[in-house]
Design a protein that fits this description.
heterotrimer; A alpha/beta (376); B alpha/beta (653); C alpha/beta (137); B: alpha/beta; Rossmann fold; FAD/NAD(P)-binding domain; 5 domains; five-stranded parallel sheet; 19 helices; C: 137 residues; four-stranded parallel sheet; 4 helices; 17% strand; globular; binds flavin-adenine dinucleotide; binds iron/sulfur cluster; binds FE2/S2 (inorganic) cluster
C-alpha cells in the first residue's frame, strides 16, 4: 500500500476535499468520498479499504485528478487499491452478473480460437498490414446488447471508412480483450496475460499503426502496454484521429447535415487529452453545438469497467441526455462504444423524466461518419 | 469468524457402503473455517440430531453442513435442529451425497471424491448464507366472494357455516345467477328453484354473510391475508331498508320492456324484480326506461309505495371492505349465436337459444311453462335442437361447453312428456354424457323416440309460414337432409362473462386461451390462481354443470378457509429484495415478474423498484433481468454461486 | 497419461430437475460420476454468467436443467432461461467454444431415467470434445 501511495503521490494529499467536491459520484452517493479513501490509506487502514464496497464506486473518470491541487494521481491510486483488495479476495459488483468479465478471463486461455469476424465478411480486411484495426469487445457487445443497440456497426463503419480511403486494415482473428476492465477492477494478473497475447499478435501483424474504436483500448494499449510495445515504435491512435488526418491528407469529405453535440469519453478526453480530433470530424459533418460540460469538464457516462453501475449512474446518464437535448441538437455523438451502450441503456425502459426531455438520437462517431461519407 | 460443523451420515450402508466416510471426514476437516467434522450411523435419528445440537452449543458453531440424503428428505429436520440449538435455521446446507453419489455410482474412490466436492460446494454456500426470519403478516379473517350464482352461494355458505365472515358481492339485483333462470335440471329433473331458493334464503339470513347486491367491486389492493376492496353499490332508485317487497310499485308501473332475465321471451316493468323469489326481494328502477326519470312524468310508484321507499335521486354508494382472501365466482355468459349467420338467429323468429327455451319451460317464466313459438304463439310440434353452437368450433370457441348435450336431451324429454306426439330432432356430432347418471338419462330419452341426427347443421332458412328448414349432412346415412320444423333451438355454449377482463385486471389473475380464468395447475391446483389468496369457483374457471360447480365451490371455500382461519400468516423469507441505492429504476424486473410483485416507486428525483414480500414467490427471474445486480434472491445470490463454482472448480473452499 | 475425466456442472431447478436427479438416485440408476449438481430455485434464476463463470474456472461442460415448458413452478422461468440460453449460444460461438459444451434440458420430477441418460450422453460427448482448455474447437 505504501508503494501505491508513493507512486501516485497520494502522500501529497492536503485533505482539502477538492476531489470529493468535484466528484460526480459523491454528488449522488453520500457514502462515497475520494478524500476519505486517501485519508484511510494514509493512516494505514488496509482492511477497512479492502472491505469497503465504495472502493469500486469510483468511475476513474479523472474529474478529480484534473483539479487536485497536490496533483495526486487519483485514478491510479484507486487502481492500486483495487489490486490490493482483489489480491485479498475482494471483488467488484459487476453488471450482467459478471458475464463480460468472464468472457475477458476466458480470453486469457492461450489456445482459444475465436470466431469473431462474421461482421467483416463484406469488407476488405487482411491478416497482416500496415494499419491494424483493434476491434475490442464489439462482437461480444453485439451478443449481449443487441436488444437496444448495435455496437458491431461501429466496427463495420470503421472498416468501411478505412476501405474508402484505400486502406485495407489487418484485423486479428484471435484478438483478446485489451484487459482494461480487469486491470481497473484489480485483476492485474489476467491483464498481464491478455496484454502479452495481444502484443505478440500485434507485432506479428507487421503493423506500424494500430487504430481503435474504443478509447479504453486506446488508453490501455498506449499507456498500459507501454512496457510491452515500447521498443516497436508502433503508433496507437483513435479512429477519430485517423479520420481527422484522412480529411486533411487524403481529402476525405462528408455530406453535411444536422446539428450535433458531442460527449467526450473520459478515457479519450481527460485521460489522453484527445479533444479536437472528434470535433474536427463532427464539424465537417454538420454543425457542432457544445454542451455546458464539455472537453475537460465533460461528465462521465456513469459506468466504467462494467462495474459500479448504480442509481447514480443512471442519474448521470439522464442528466447528460437532458443536457444534450437542451442544446437543440438532433444527434448526440460519442466516440466510445461503452458510452454509447450506457447512454442508450439509460433510456431503454422506464425513465424518471418526461420522454421529450431526453429524446435525442445517440450515435457513435464512426457510424455517423460512415453514413456521411461523401461520394460513397 | 465462521465456525462450521460438518456432519456426515452413513445412512447405514446406504452411504458408507460406497463412500469412504473416514477419508471424506479427513478431507473435509482441512477446509477453511471448519471447526469440527463428525460422522454418525443415522444422523436423522434422535441421538444423531442431539449430536449436532450439543456441538452447536458447546463449540459455538454458527453454521452447519450435513452430508446425507437429499435436502428434500430432511432439510426441515435439520433446520429444526439448528433452531432448537439456538442458531438461525437458514445457516444450514445439505450435501446430497446419497441420491447424488453413493446410490448412483459404483467406484468407491471416485464416489468419495465426488462426495467431497459436494461437501465443498455446501461449505462454500453455507458461508454465504444469511440468517433469515419468516415474515409474520396479520390475516384479516374474512373472505370476499365475487358473484352469487350457485358457486358463490355455496362458497359463502360453507365459509359462514364454519364460523367466518363473508362479504358476498353480486352485480345483479338478486343472487341466484344462471341457475335461477333454469326450469328443471338434468339429470334428476328436480326443479332448479326448488333446490336453489332455500340456499338463497339461507344466504340472506346468515348473520355471517354481508350481502351487497346490485354492486360491483371497483378496486382491490393488497395481498394474501390483507386485501382491501372498494365496492360500488348502485342505486336502486329506492331505499332498500324501507322497502317491504310488497310489489305494489311493479304492479302499477305502466311501462313494459323486454326482460333480459327472460332472455327477451317476456316483458317486465320499469320497476321490477328479476323473479318472484328474488333475494333480496327489493325492486330496482330501470333508469333508462323509467318515464319519470327520462321525461319527468309519471311518478306512480312513488305515490303507491306504502313504505315511502322510492327515491329517484338516490345516488350510488361506495363501501370499503377488508378481507384476507378472495373467491371469484362470476360465472359465464351464454354464447351469442348472432355471429353464426348461417343459423339465422336474430333474423328468424323461430330460431331461439337453449336458455330462451329454458325460460319458456320455466313454470314461473313468461309463458308459465308452456312452450310456444315466438312468431305466432303456436305450440310447436316439430322441434330441432342444434348442438355445439359456438362450441368445438375453430371460428368461435374451441372447447366443449359440457352442458349443452344434456341440456338439449333434458328439454327434449320435457317437451315429449308434455306433448307425446311432438317430433324432436337433435343434431349432434358427439353426445357427451360424461357425468354421473348422465348416460342413463340419455338412454331414457332414446326410449322416448327422440331422433338423434349425426351431423352439424350447415344452414337454417325460413319458410313463409314461419317454419324453419334445417339443412345438415346426416353423416350416418351420408345424405344431405333438409328438415322443416316449427322451431329450432340453438344449444349455445358457455363463454366468459363479457366483463371478465375487468375482474382479471382488478386481481391480476390470468386467463387461459379460452378466456376463462386460469387455475394455478390444470390437474393439481384447479381452485387456486397464481395470485396467492385468490381462488376460483364455478363456471368462471370454465364450463361446468351444477354438480361440478358446487364441488369446486366447496373446494374454494376450504382453500379460502385455509388462508383466513389463521390469525397470522408466515410469509416465506426466501424471496428477492432490491438494493434501492443501486437500483436504476429501469423497470426490467417489473416487466419480467409473473406475480406483479414489483412496483416502481419514486425516490427523490428517481425511480426505484420495490418488491412486495407478500407477492414475491422467490423465483429469481428478476435477479437475472436486472442488468446491474440490484436485486438478489435471498440465499441464492450470484456471489454464493460463484463461491460454489470456485470451491469445486478452483479447488478451494 | 491419465484418461480425461471431464468436469461437468449441472444447475438443476428445485421443483423438477433436482427431484428428477433424486429419483435417479432412489431408483439406483448408474451414471458417470463427473457431474456436480448445484441447486437453483428455477432455471429462470440461472444467470448466463454462471455458465461462463464455470467455463472460465475450467468446467468442461455445463448444463441448465428445468421443468418442461408449461410446467415451470413459476409459470415461465424456463422460457426466460431458453431466451437467455440463445444469447449464451451466440457468445459461445464468438468465443469459438463448442456449443455442445453447454446444454439446456427439461427434466421433470418423474424423469429419473432421463436425468441419468442425459448425464451419460453429456459425459460421453464432452469426453469426445476433450478438455475445455484444449483449444482448437
Ligand atoms: C341453458 C343452460 C342450461 C343448463 N342446465 C343445467 C342443468 O340442467 N343441470 C346442470 O347441472 N347444469 C346446467 N347448466 C349449467 C349451470 O347453469 C351452471 O353450472 C351454473 O349456473 C354455474 O353457476 P356459477 O355460479 O358458476 O355461474 P353463474 O350462474 O353465472 O353465476 C355467476 C354470478 O356472478 C355474478 N357476477 C358476474 N360478474 C360479476 C361481477 N363482476 N361482480 C359481481 N357479480 C358478478 C352474476 O351476476 C351471477 O349472479 C345449464 C347451463 C345453461 C347455459
Ligand atoms: S423473485 Fe420472482 S416473484 Fe419475486 S419479485 Fe422477482 S420475479 Fe417476482
Ligand atoms: S431491473 Fe434492476 S435496476 Fe432496473 S428497476 Fe429493477 S432492480 Fe432496478
Ligand atoms: S421451477 Fe423448474 S424451471 Fe422454473
Amino acid at each position: 500500500m505504501k508503494q501505491i501511495i508513493r507512486n501516485t503521490k497520494a502522500y501529497y494529499c492536503v485533505e482539502c476535499g477538492k476531489c470529493t467536491g468535484s466528484c460526480p459520484v459523491a454528488r449522488g452517493n453520500e457514502f462515497f468520498s475520494p478524500r476519505l479513501i486517501v485519508e484511510r490509506a494514509l493512516s494505514g487502514m488496509k482492511q477497512d479499504i479492502e472491505g469497503d464496497r465504495e472502493l469500486w464506486a469510483c468511475l476513474t473518470c479523472e474529474a478529480c485528478s484534473k483539479k487536485c491541487p497536490s496533483t495526486v494521481k487519483y485514478s491510479e491510486f484507486i487502481r492500486g487499491m483495487r489490486k490490493m483488495a482483489f489480491d485479498s479476495g475482494f471483488t467488484s459488483r459487476c453488471s450482467q452478473g459478471g458475464l463480460l468479465h468472464s468472457i475477458q478471463r476466458i480470453h486469457s486461455i492461450k489456445d482459444l480460437v475465436q470466431d469473431r469476424l462474421d461482421w467483416a465478411k463484406d469488407l476488405k480486411t487482411s491478416k497482416k498490414g500496415e494499419v491494424l484495426y483493434f476491434t475490442g469487445c464489439l462482437p461480444y457487445f453485439e451478443n449481449l446488447f443487441s436488444a437496444f443497440v448495435s455496437p458491431i456497426e461501429i466496427a463495420k463503419s470503421t472498416v468501411k471508412i478505412l476501405n474508402f480511403a484505400g486502406i485495407v486494415p489487418a484485423i486479428l482473428q484471435n484478438e483478446r480483450c485489451c484487459g482494461h476492465d480487469l486491470l481497473w477492477t484489480g485483476d492485474s494478473e489476467t491483464f498481464q496475460k491478455l496484454a502479452r497475447l495481444n502484443t505478440e499478435m500485434i507485432k506479428e501483424s507487421g503493423a506500424s499503426r494500430v487504430v481503435t474504436s474504443c478509447p479504453e483500448c486506446l488508453r490501455t494499449l498506449k499507456l498500459d502496454y507501454a512496457d510491452l510495445l515500447e521498443s516497436t515504435g508502433i503508433e496507437i491512435m483513435h479512429i477519430s484521429e485517423l479520420i481527422s488526418s484522412l480529411m486533411k491528407n487524403n481529402g476525405i469529405k462528408f455530406n453535411r447535415s444536422g446539428i450535433m453535440t458531442y460527449h467526450d469519453p473520459c478515457r479519450l478526453g481527460r485521460h489522453l487529452g484527445i479533444y479536437d480530433a472528434p470535433r474536427d470530424v463532427i464539424k465537417s459533418m454538420g454543425e457542432l453545438v457544445e454542451m455546458g460540460n464539455h472537453m475537460a469538464e465533460s461528465s462521465c457516462c456513469g459506468v466504467s469497467a462494467w462495474a459500479t453501475c448504480e442509481s447514480m449512474s443512471k442519474q448521470m446518464q439522464v442528466n447528460r441526455l437532458i443536457e444534450a437535448k437542451s442544446t437543440g441538437s438532433d444527434t448526440l455523438i460519442t466516440s466510445c462504444p461503452k458510452c454509447l451502450i450506457h447512454l442508450k441503456c439509460a433510456v431503454h425502459n422506464q425513465i424518471p423524466v418526461e420522454k421529450e426531455k431526453v429524446d435525442i438520437r445517440i450515435e457513435d462517431l464512426a457510424v455517423a461518419a460512415g453514413k456521411a461519407l461523401a461520394g460513397d | 469468524m465462521t465456525n462450521i460443523g460438518i456432519y456426515i451420515c452413513h445412512c447405514g450402508t446406504n452411504i458408507a457402503g460406497m463412500i469412504d466416510v473416514e477419508e471424506l471426514a479427513r478431507k473435509a476437516a482441512k477446509l477453511k473455517d471448519v471447526s469440527v467434522v463428525k460422522d454418525y450411523r443415522y444422523l436423522c435419528s434422535d441421538p444423531g440430531q442431539d449430536l449436532i445440537k450439543e456441538d452447536i452449543r458447546s463449540m459455538d458453531l454458527d453454521r452447519v453442513v450435513v452430508a446425507a440424503c437429499s435436502p428434500r428428505m430432511h432439510e426441515s429436520t435439520y433446520r429444526k435442529v439448528l433452531s432448537e440449538a439456538g442458531i438461525n435455521p437458514f445457516l444450514l446446507e445439505i450435501a446430497n451425497i446419497r441420491e447424488q453419489a453413493s446410490w448412483v455410482h459404483s467406484e468407491k474412490e471416485k464416489t468419495t471424491e465426488k462426495a467431497f466436492d459436494l461437501v465443498r460446494i455446501a461449505v462454500a454456500k453455507v458461508k454465504k448464507d444469511e440468517s433469515l426470519e419468516s415474515l409474520p403478516a396479520d390475516v384479516i379473517q374474512r373472505v370476499l366472494v365475487i358473484g352469487a350464482g350457485i358457486a358463490g352461494i355455496q362458497t359463502s355458505l360453507d365459509i359462514a357455516n364454519i364460523g367466518y365472515e363473508v362479504v358476498l358481492v353480486e352485480k345483479e339485483q338478486s343472487i341466484g345467477g344462471r341457475m335461477s333462470q333454469l326450469g328443471k335440471t338434468f339429470p334428476t329433473l328436480d326443479c332448479s328453484a326448488c333446490i336453489l331458493t332455500p340456499r338463497m334464503v339461507e344466504v340472506s339470513t346468515n348473520p355471517k354473510i354481508r350481502l351487497h347486491t346490485y354492486s360491483e367491486v371497483e378496486e382491490i389492493s393488497g395481498f394474501i391475508g390483507n386485501f382491501h376492496a372498494k365496492i360500488r353499490k348502485k342505486s336502486r332508485g329506492l331505499n332498500p331498508d324501507l322497502c317491504t317487497g310488497c310489489g305494489e310499485c311493479t304492479a302499477r308501473c305502466p311501462t313494459k320492456v323486454p326482460g333480459e332475465y327472460d332472455e327477451g321471451m317476456g316483458k317486465r316493468k320499469a320497476i321490477y324484480t328479476l323473479f318472484p323469489q328474488a333475494v333480496p326481494n327489493v325492486p330496482v328502477i330501470d333508469r333508462a326506461n323509467c318515464v319519470y326519470i327520462t321525461k319527468g312524468k309519471c311518478g306512480i310508484c312513488k305515490k303507491v309505495c306504502p313504505a315511502g321507499a322510492i327515491d329517484y335521486e338516490l345516488g350510488d354508494e361506495i363501501v370499503e371492505e377488508e378481507v384476507g382472501a378472495v373467491v371469484v365466482a362470476s360465472g359465464f355468459d351464454p354464447f351469442d349465436p348472432t355471429s353464426k349467420e348461417e343459423l339465422g338467429y336474430g333474423r328468424y323468429k323461430n330460431v331461439i337459444t337453449g336458455l330462451q327455451l329454458e325460460r319458456l319451460l320455466h313454470t314461473a317464466g313468461p309463458t308459465k311453462g308452456e312452450v310456444i313459438r315466438p312468431s305466432d304463439g303456436a305450440v310447436p310440434k316439430r322441434i330441432a335442437f342444434v348442438q355445439c353452437v359456438g362450441s368445438r368450433d375453430e371460428h368461435a370457441n374451441k372447447y366443449c361447453s359440457r352442458v349443452c348435450c344434456m341440456h338439449a336431451i333434458k328439454n327434449a324429454l320435457l317437451i315429449k312428456e308434455h306433448h307425446p306426439d311432438a317430433e324432436i330432432f337433435i343434431y349432434y356430432i358427439d353426445i357427451r354424457a360424461f357425468g354421473k347418471g348422465y348416460e342413463e338419462f340419455y338412454k331414457r330419452t332414446q326410449e322416448h323416440g327422440i331422433k338423434f341426427m349425426r351431423g352439424r347443421v350447415a344452414e337454417i332458412f325460413e319458410e313463409n309460414n314461419g317454419n324453419v328448414v334445417v339443412r345438415a349432412d346426416d353423416t350416418l346415412l351420408g345424405m344431405v337432409m333438409e328438415n322443416e320444423v316449427d322451431m329450432a333451438v340453438l344449444s349455445v355454449g358457455m363463454v366468459p362473462r363479457s366483463d371478465s377482463a375487468k375482474i382479471q385486471k382488478l386481481l391480476g389473475i390470468a386467463t387461459g386461451s379460452d378466456g376463462f380464468f386460469m387455475e394455478a395447475h390444470a390437474k393439481l391446483r384447479p381452485v387456486e390462481t397464481l395470485v396467492d389468496g385468490v381462488f376460483l369457483a364455478g363456471t368462471a374457471q370454465g364450463p361446468k354443470d351444477i354438480p361440478d360447480t358446487v364441488a369446486q365451490a366447496k373446494g374454494a371455500a376450504s382453500s379460502a378457509l385455509g388462508v383466513i382461519s389463521h390469525k397470522v400468516l408466515e410469509l416465506s423469507p426466501l424471496i428477492s429484495e432490491v438494493d434501492e441505492r443501486l437500483c436504476r429504476g429501469c423497470g426490467d424486473c417489473k416487466d419480467i415478474c409473473e406475480y406483479g410483485a414489483i412496483e416502481l416507486i419514486t425516490l427523490d428525483s428517481r425511480n426505484a423498484a420495490r418488491i412486495n414480500p407478500a407477492l414475491c414467490k422467490g423465483c429469481g427471474a428478476c435477479t437475472v433481468a436486472c442488468c446491474n445486480g440490484s436485486i438478489k434472491l435471498r440465499n441464492f445470490t450470484d456471489t454464493a454461486t460463484f463461491a460454489m463454482l470456485e470451491a469445486v472448480l478452483g479447488g478451494e473452499a | 497419461m491419465t484418461e480425461f475425466d471431464p468436469r461437468i456442472i449441472a444447475f438443476c431447478c428445485n421443483w423438477c430437475s433436482y427431484v428428477g436427479a433424486d429419483l435417479a438416485g432412489t431408483s439406483r440408476l448408474q451414471y458417470p460420476h463427473n457431474v456436480r449438481i448445484i441447486r437453483t430455485m428455477c432455471s429462470g434464476q440461472v444467470f448466463p454468467s454462471y455458465i461462463l463463470k464455470a467455463l472460465e474456472l475450467g468446467a468442461d461442460g455445463v448444463m441448465i436443467a428445468g421443468c418442461h415448458i408449461g410446467d415451470c413452478h413459476y409459470v415461465s422461468g424456463n422460457k426466460k432461461a431458453e431466451e437467455r440460453f440463445r444469447m449464451l449460444l451466440g457468445i459461445m460461438k464468438t468465443l469459438g467454444l463448442d456449443a455442445r459444451r453447454i446444454r439446456l434440458e427439461w427434466i421433470s420430477a418423474s424423469e429419473g431415467v432421463k436425468f441419468a441418460n442425459t448425464i451419460k450422453e453429456f459425459a460421453r460427448e464432452i469426453k469426445e470434445l476433450g478438455p475445455r482448455n484444449g483449444g482448437k474447437e
